[in-house]
Each structure stands twice: as C-alpha cells, then as structure tokens.
Design a protein that fits this description.
- The chain is an alpha+beta fold.
- It is built from five helices and five strands.
- It has helices at about 15-30, 35-55, 85-90, 105-125, 145-150; strands at about 1-10, 65-70, 75-80, 125-130, 135-145.
- The protein has a five-stranded antiparallel sheet.
- α1 packs antiparallel against α2 and α2 runs antiparallel to α4 (about 105-125).
Length: about 150
C-alpha cells in the first residue's frame, strides 16, 4: 500500500497543485483514464472546502491530503483542522455529508459547505465525511484497473 501525503497552507492557489498531484498519482495507481477528470474535480472541491473552512475559522494549520494506492482501489483523504461535531453523533448529517457537519458555521459558509459536499457526492460513488474535535476528513475512493480486470 503506497501513500503520497501532501500538506499545504490554506491558500486557494495551492488547490490546483493538489488536483494535479492527485490526478498523476491516480493515473499511476491504475484509475481508469475516463475517471481522472472526476478525481481532479472531487479533489478540487474537497481541498477548496478545507481551505475555506480554515480561512473562515482563522486556522493556520495546513490542509492535509493523503493519496493511497490499495490492492483494488485508490483512495484520497482530504483533512482539515476545524473542530466540529461528529455528524453521526449529533444527527446533523449523514455519511454522504448531506447535512451540515459543523453546526457553528455561519449561514453563508454552511451553504457553500453543503454545495461542495453535494458536488463531491455526485462525482464519487464511494465517499465518506467525518468530523470531530480534531477536524474533518473527506475520504473518497475509486476502483483501479486491477479491480476491474480480474475475472
């Protein structure tokens, strides 16, 4: 299981770099070429969301991205450092991120947050959103060629 880890300051200009790295690593991991645009877009949305959360909450910690090549799948985890209630415990959202993950966010930020999560859910079949006292994580995964080629 190979992993590439990125950390970048919460600046919008770094999101493009994260998207490019994610697409390159996904291609190397065996993700179908037809899906690479979805990977780029989903990572861009997740990283933009994390950057926006960091900036709106005044957090200077870096945004983290872990790209993991597994046996039959490629997964990406985008993490932020904004403390929030766990949606599963508070009833504020579900595993797809359809509800507000951070009840303390302002109304405008909350709407953007929900829109970003909706876009990600539309692009990625396997997505999980978690949030807790240490921050939030969006985990997305795609099958690799090894998973689809085997009989």
């Amino acid at each position: 299981m190979a992993t590439v880890e990125l950390r970048f300051s919460a600046q919008p200009e770094h999101v493009r770099t994260a998207r490019l790295v994610a697409a390159a690593v996904a291609r190397r991991a065996g993700v179908d070429e037809a899906v690479l645009d979805e990977v780029r877009l989903a990572v861009g949305e997740a990283c933009s969301r994390a950057v926006g959360l960091h900036r709106s909450h005044g957090i200077t910690a870096p945004v983290s991205v872990a790209l993991t090549e597994e046996e039959k799948a490629f997964s990406i985890e985008v993490g932020d450092s904004v403390p929030g209630a766990d949606p599963a415990e508070s009833g504020a959202g579900d595993a797809s991120g359809a509800g507000p993950a951070r009840p303390d966010s302002e109304a405008d930020g909350e709407g953007e947050d929900e829109m970003g999560l909706a876009v990600i859910s539309g692009l990625v079949d396997d997505v999980e959103v978690r949030s807790g006292a240490g921050g939030g994580v969006i985990r997305m995964s795609w099958p690799t060629a090894d998973a689809t080629v085997r009989p």
